[in-house]
Known about the structure:
Layout: H1 3-11, H2 25-30, H3 37-48, H4 56-63, H5 70-74, H6 81-95, H7 103-112, H8 118-128, H9 132-136, H10 142-157, E1 164-165, E2 172-177, H11 181-185, H12 187-199, E3 202-205, H13 215-220, H14 223-241, E4 246-249, H15 252-258, H16 261-264, H17 270-276, E5 277-279, H18 280-289, E6 302-305, H19 309-314, H20 318-325, E7 332-335, H21 348-351, H22 353-370, E8 374-376, H23 380-397, E9 402-404, H24 406-412
Parallel strand pairs: 2-3, 2-4, 4-5, 6-7, 6-8, 8-9
Antiparallel strand pairs: 1-3
Amino acid sequence: MSIHQTISQLANQCVLCGICIPHCPTYGIFQTENESPRGRISLFKALAEEQLEPTKDLLTALDHCLGCRACEKICPSQVDYAQITRLGRALINAQYPVYKRPLKQKLIEKALITPSVHPFLKLAAKILSPLRSLLSKQSNYAYIGYFSREIVANSSQASPLQAYYPASHARAQIILFKGCSSDLFEQQVLKDTVTLLNACQIDVVIPEQQHCCGAISIRQGDTLAIQSFSRENIECIESLLQESQAVISINNSCSAHLKEYQQLLDIPGADEFSRKSVDAIAFLSQAIKSSNVHFSPLKNNNIGVHIPCSLKNVLDEESLLFELLEHIPGVQLSKLNDKYCCGAAGSYMLQYPDVANHLLDDKIDEISHRQYSTLVSSNIGCSLHFKQGLEKHHATSGRKIEVIHPIRLLARQLER
């Protein structure tokens, strides 16, 4: 079946009921049918059946989708919206490559998914970091200045990761999937994950030659890159799969995508890889329950919890995040309003900063109103988005709020 026929067939499952519309963040902003899930399904179908010309406005409406998949979760007909958009973006990339992403976005995405250039990127970040205040005043370069500071901070937080971390009296082994962004922005969280797993008597293996999970390439509609990354990740981990209990990732988006490898590739190992892929939040929640690990109470206990869309709508494991954090004695957790996506959506915040910041503003206001001391988020892109938004808030309010990964918070309280 051709890609055109597949899109048309999947789109026909939508009965156009409109139940999804109130749950769509871009519809909430633009209030037009084209900016709704139902509208986008109809547009993808029309493109696949060559009933519409691919105008710039049409392609923009399709590209505005954040990929939060809130519509998919609420859909009574169980329409596979993710598959429709993935194939639709691939169709546009192949046949209508007229819609160009901003140069800064292309450069950052390319740098993220190419581990070999990360050492050079870290060096460049050190050079750019002193110029950050100047860059932040230029809207086109604000994120570059901000990212450079975060990369420098990350590089100084933890030593380079090793390939193997044995636990005393180990009862299992897991494979830690780094992905691409964690190497640049969350080295310490990776180390904290190893610390917690070792404390639970679990050996940790970190294979070399890992690549981006491929999620970034989905937004680009780059089918070849998606399949290439998927295949290479399976090949570099395949020899370890049989003796390992799970493949875990600290980034919910990566975890969700790894679970879908079996849908992308029909090769040996893809099914087992997907089956054993588990988010670090879910894995640690269960591992700590069955271990003799203890945590100290928090002194400053007003904790806000952000639920990333990938954790809520794709993995459906938001309750496990609370279960994990509740291992800290007496912890007080308050869920941030998660009606809509925060606007990060991977590289979306670089391509459509106005939309992304519009969605973030309400959450920043809520964080300020509730006077959180700390905000936890288990998605790297979301954390970066919140950090830059809260930094602007700090400049006007004088009140600083820490944004960290829940695993980082847990590791701080670990009794050693």
